[in-house]
Write a structure and sequence with these properties.
Largest sheet: 5 strands, antiparallel
Order of helices and strands: HHHHEEEEE
Number of helices: 4
Length: about 130
């Protein structure tokens, strides 16, 4: 019982001694960072989508186009590495409606409609 009382008093003491000030660190940008950031080209979301659509190396594009009306959706590549590519398709309101998962090693493509489940599962390109 005595240990519990000492523990409670210690906790209250530590809480009461705490500062109400927030530790905010203000970091100023260096001129070098600002210069590099200004020189880098900024690509908009539509430019990214156009580069995806124009990319002839996307093996899954024909299957996506056959199963989804791509003109109604915005393509967003979430992951693209040597083993797989994941693309989210968002409608004009920004809601995610479809997900495309392409496994590059095996050539397997899955197109998933979020409210209904898989709408396309097949091997392509291999």
């Amino acid at each position: 019982m005595q240990k519990v009382i000492i523990l409670m008093i210690g906790t209250l003491l530590l809480a009461a001694c705490g500062s109400n000030e927030k530790n905010v660190v203000h970091k100023e940008k260096s001129p070098i960072v600002e210069t590099v950031a200004a020189e880098m080209p900024k690509s908009t979301e539509s430019e990214k989508n156009e580069s995806i659509i124009e990319n002839s190396e996307m093996l899954e594009f024909a299957s996506l186009e056959a199963n989804v009306s791509l003109s109604d959706y915005q393509l967003n590549v979430v992951e693209d590495n040597p083993h797989k590519r994941i693309i989210l398709l968002k409608n004009k309101q920004g809601q995610e409606r479809y997900k495309s998962i392409f496994i590059k090693d095996t050539g397997e493509l899955k197109i998933i409609e979020f409210n209904k489940g898989p709408i396309f599962v097949d091997m392509i390109g291999k």
